[in-house]
């Protein structure tokens, strides 16, 4: 009976993710949001909310805008307020404004301060206001008045394109027929595609082999078992 090749234990090496405008794939599900965000400085309002599910590409699109607008990137609403007070004329990016534990009162004050200073602000969130977010009623009212650039769920074309990009980012050796095999079986979510490519990379390193159809099928089967 043939012995299985010994597995290696890959190191968690950093991966260079490219977030330039040329690396952003524009298709039906994100076309309208991309057009609205990149229409700056001709936005319909001084504040814009970029909404979409986790892994939909919000941070990538927001980073494209931030580079163009030379915006200050804030990690919290309080930091964004500090940036606004320091340089009122500079646009501000606040990513994941609906993150668990985010300070809703600070975000409410930020929206008011941006309008008073006639500043510009791009927010990203997983959704527009819902019955559970935000809990602060005044903040929910303010956010509902903000124009929304909405990223829709990925379609087959986008899944395939993102799959190719992420494989390229990790410099994996994958033949075209295997990429097609993966694209047909990957979940229709950019976050799921990212998790799939990460799993392929780990398995390829562990086995010391390129990503062939057999390896790809094993990884997909294991991931499906883990989610069942």
UniProtKB/TrEMBL annotation:
Transmembrane segments: none annotated. GO terms for biological process: DNA replication initiation. It comes from the Bacteria. Gene3D superfamilies: 1.10.8.60, P-loop containing nucleotide triphosphate hydrolases. GO terms for cellular component: plasma membrane. InterPro entries: P-loop_NTPase (IPR027417). One of its GO terms (molecular function) is DNA replication origin binding. PANTHER family: CHROMOSOMAL REPLICATION INITIATOR PROTEIN DNAA, DNAA REGULATORY INACTIVATOR HDA. This is Chromosomal replication initiator protein DnaA domain-containing protein.
